Amino acid sequence: MITAPRCRRRLFTALALAALAALAPLITPATAQAEAPEAVFKRGAEALHKGEYGAAIDAFESLADQGFTHPDASYDRGLAYVMRVRAHADRPGDLGRAAAAFEETLLLRPGDRDADTALDHVRAEVTRRRSRKSKDEVAVRPSLDRLVVGLASEQVWGLSALAASLLFAAGLVLWRRKGRPHLVGAVLAPTAAVALLMFIPLTWGAHHLRVTTRPGVVVATEVPLEDDNGKPRPNETIPEAAAVETGERRGGSIHVRWGSSEGWVPATSVRLIGP
Amino acid sequence: MSARRALRRRGAFALLALLLACSAPSPVRAQAPPQVSVQASARKVEVGEAFTIQLKATGEQIAPNSPELKVPAGFAVAGQSIAQFGTRFKRGIDISWTVIPQKAGHFVIPGPSININQNRYTTSPIVIDVVAATPGSQAQRQRQSPFLFPGGPSISLGGGFFADDPDEDLVPSEAPTLGLPSAPDPWIFLRAVPDRKTAVIGEQVTLSFYVYTRLDYHVDESHEAPLSDFRRVPLLTNPGAEGAQRARAGADVYHVRLLDRVALFPLRAGELHTGSLTVKFSARRLGPYNERASDDQIITVTEPPKENRPPGYVLGDVGQFSLAATVMPRLIEQGGSVAVSVRVSGSGNFPQELHLPERTSLEWLDPEKKEQIGIQNGAVAGTKTFGYVVRVKEAGKVDLGAIDLPYWNPSSKRYEQARAALGVVEVSPGAPGPRVKDPAGKEPDLPDVPVADPLATLAPPRLSLGAYSAARSPIWGEARTLWALIAAPPLLVGLGFAGAGAARWTKGRRASGKASPAALAIAALREAEDAEEKGDVKGVAAAVERAIHLALDAATGLKSRGVLLADLPAELEERDVPAALAGEVGEALATCETIRFDPKGNAIVRDLLGRARAIVSELARRKPS
């Protein structure tokens, strides 16, 4: 049987422990705990839903720092930056960061219409802001080599080259025969040889670009291009939110290609996208 | 006329005398007197707390000597340091005495004096209030240092500015931590000593610069180390005034003086160079303007680990911090503002900005920053206050959220997080309250004007992670595999064609080899041996004859069956067959002819067979002409 004073003492002790547990984080600095990426995403998405874009940006950037890539996380990250822009609390490069996030969404999930629309709107906003200063548009045409190589993926070019190689071999075999097979071989072998000569450079180009370059987006208001000696190229600047192809890193600079222009820019002014 | 000429002559003399008087160096024209001043590092100290009295003299071509400080009872002089500086025309000297009060009270210390150009200059007296030491104070800590203890070992700069050689009796005992296995210079050199060689971005590295000397010197000029990759905080209030120590470098004992000590906070990752402190010394033994540079230290700087890095962590936020926040007022009207003051206390590399709980209905203006940061136990510590004005655009109970400061604690080697909850503000609906001016002096933005905002039409956020499969690398994996696959079919076909051609060629060669005269000659010899075993003498002769003709055909290309036996040796000699061999051939064929028509005994046949073998073998060695 529990007496009343003892019961009160237990209740008091329990309350004191509960109060201590509640106050502990305020008294001592909390040690940061590792959190699963899914939990961080959920926290960020909820913050974004409540309009707490600061917390949302923290959460999604933390995911990116951890190397977690998912088109939905990238999309929400873009929305968080857009929300900060809309709240007039934006920092230089926020539109670029939003564009980078939407570009990443499209890179990871090419058919994402929402991301495509959002990217168009962000780029339009950048263009609108630049047009006040009589500046050029954000988008430029890629150079011809990038355009041709970019028509298909490395896998498509590689498989095409492989097929051309097989047909060329078959054509050679038929060419040695007599009668109709010889005729077929006489047509097939040279045709396949031409196709092979076309697909091999395309495959090599696509492979080289995949290995040596990475897509990126400019996250600074405007970035001047510098040559190999670090001197600014006259009248060559890349606008915010522009999609660029990045290459070699040298110290604090990174080599970028924007349309047919190429040069060096500060590495911090470009956000690399994709895994 | 002559009087006028004499008058003109007198005037010219007077003018000449005046010019000479002006241009001649005048012994009466005195040099500007030297400027002598004195100052104390503190006017109120605790008992046992060291302070410095600094005498400074500057002037043209001054030769100072015999500085003197007479302290009253209750004070002890713990050390004296001297530094000379100057240019070609103006020179100066700084003499610092480290003085330790031993009892409380109000004292007047007579001003120190110095001889300059045979005149003694005495400075004004210094008034010092000495109070009792408080427990744990700097004075108490200093008392533990034998170098500052009254009556303890005194400290002097390289044996004193005016002495020829260091007086080792006046300097403290050796400091083993400053010892070096070898000395880079036999007389004087600089050394930079970091307290650590590895750090994370934002972690304090303490760098000390020492001068090691074995002679009297003065500093002509000095240039600080560049330290371009670090934020630098000086740790010494009076650099160069620290007492000297002794240390062994190689076989010699040097006087070592701390020139400067700075706290460095690395700004980026990598192998960061501190650069060199350069000082030009003058010494009697070395002459003027001897430049020495400290060693360039390399600090390996890394980022704090990415593992467990909390959201919102900013590189460089390293130390131990706590947060406290106040929000005023708590009751406002919609559109009004509150003042949020956040105080960061602790030690380390203080954050440049705080991560704010930004949300759509709150507008945070740029903060006003105030800091009271000093040095505590060699570490940069204090408080930094951020004052914000927050405009609240929605009505009701608005939770301002909390401010988090994640930081890397280098002591515990883990991330920690300081947090200050801002609480709730009650916002009553109605006309916007009075606009609060931003502490930085700028007006808050005007209320939003509704404009068409295309960014408002974006699709809503995604609350869960949808289906997604990461892009795969090409199916062939390595690029080499693809190139091998592409090259394989034409190569295989080419190899097939080449193989078939080679087989055909080999077959033809083999067939032609079997029908060659040489092969047939050997076959004929084999038939001759078979015939001999059977006792067929005629058969032997026929086979031997055939073997020799075939061997001749193979060796010379001569179809010898159509040649008369008598002409054969001559024909063969024409074809470069040695006469002896040609004769052998003729004899052998003649023997065959004979045996065919008149078979003899086995002995002749065996002899014929032996000769035939020798002829065929000999002919086989010859190439056809």
Structural overview:
The complex is a heterodimer of chains A (275) and B (625). In chain A, 59% of the residues lie in helices and 16% in strands. Chain A has three domains: 37-131, Tetratricopeptide repeat domain (Serine Threonine Protein Phosphatase 5, Tetratricopeptide repeat, Alpha Horseshoe), CATH 1.25.40.10; 151-200, no CATH class; 213-272, SH3 type barrels (Roll). With 275 residues, chain A is α+β, with helices and mostly antiparallel strands. In chain A, strand 5 and strand 6 (253-258) form a beta hairpin. Chain B is an alpha+beta fold. Chain B has four domains: 35-143, Immunoglobulin-like; 172-302, Immunoglobulin-like (Sandwich), CATH 2.60.40; 318-443, Immunoglobulin-like; 517-620, Four Helix Bundle (Hemerythrin (Met), subunit A). Chain B has helices at 2-23, 138-143, 479-514, 517-534, 537-556, 568-574, 579-597, 602-620; strands spanning 35-40, 44-46, 51-60, 64-68, 75-86, 90-101, 105-109, 113-116, 119-122, 126-131, 188-194, 198-200, 205-213, 218-223, 230-234, 244-249, 252-266, 270-273, 278-283, 287-293, 298-302, 318-328, 331-333, 337-349, 362-364, 368-376, 379-392, 396-399, 402-409, 414-421, 424-428. In chain B, the strands form nine sheets. In chain B, strands 11, 13, 15, 16 and 17 form a five-stranded antiparallel sheet that branches. At the A-B interface, strand 1, helix 2, helix 3, helix 4 and helix 6 of A face strand 22, strand 30 and helix 3 of B. Strand 1 of chain A pairs antiparallel with strand 30 of chain B, so a sheet runs across the interface.
